[in-house]
Design brief:
Blueprint (H helix, E strand, L loop, with lengths): L2 H23 L6 H7 L4 H8 L2 H25 L4 H14 L4 H15 L1 H25 L8 H21 L5 H14 L7
Length: 195
């Protein structure tokens, strides 16, 4: 194994162990030296790759958000019509809040640890652009009334983020079903022609 491959393997091992611990214990309970020890490297190696516990956490959040964006895109692509794609993607985003890793890392800890602005920027990079593309297509197809897409994207994204944050803290088994119904009503209100 070359030195570059060793560095990449060490970074990936730290990322995987950090992700496991952040998901299980929460950001504040994780100690970077313990993460390093668990993967058999020095604390200095962990600092070399991520500079700090916050740096490791930021990398983990980016990875989980990227995977969430892919999950939402895959759910949308499983459907043929643009309206059904939008609805499926939105439902997949909300359902992801029940994934313990997404819930703890992305929805509960990331806004508090990284701050709202950074968390929002990372969310936009991973999923909001897909939403904007879907809404643009629906406006161009005349399914949604002609309107500026950027504010519509932000309104819908904000509503779904708030709903996902609420779902992450909601213990009730019916919370997701109720939220999906509310989302469907909201989306239907955007349609020019009701199905």
């Amino acid at each position: 194994m070359t030195r570059a491959e060793q560095r990449a393997a060490t970074r990936q091992a730290l990322l995987a162990e950090g992700r496991r611990r952040f998901a299980a214990d929460g950001y504040h309970a994780v100690v970077l030296a313990d993460v390093a020890q668990a993967v058999g490297v020095t604390k200095g190696a962990a600092y070399h790759h991520f500079e700090s516990k916050a740096g490791l956490f930021r990398a983990v959040v980016a990875e989980v958000q990227h995977e969430l964006g892919e999950r939402v895109a895959a759910a949308a692509e499983a459907h043929t019509g643009p309206w059904d794609q939008l609805r499926a993607g939105c439902h997949a985003f909300l359902a992801a809040g029940h994934d313990p890793t997404v819930r703890r890392i992305v929805l509960l800890d990331a806004p508090a640890v990284l701050g709202w602005d950074e968390w929002r920027a990372m969310d936009e990079d991973s999923s909001a652009r897909h939403l904007a593309e879907a809404l643009t297509g629906l406006v161009e197809a005349g399914v949604i009334a002609d309107q500026p897409v950027e504010p519509l994207t932000r309104l819908l994204s904000g509503a779904m983020n708030e709903a996902a944050l609420w779902l992450a803290r909601s213990p009730g088994p019916q919370a997701l079903v109720q939220t999906e119904r509310a989302l469907d009503s909201l989306l239907l209100g955007l349609r020019v022609q009701q199905p």
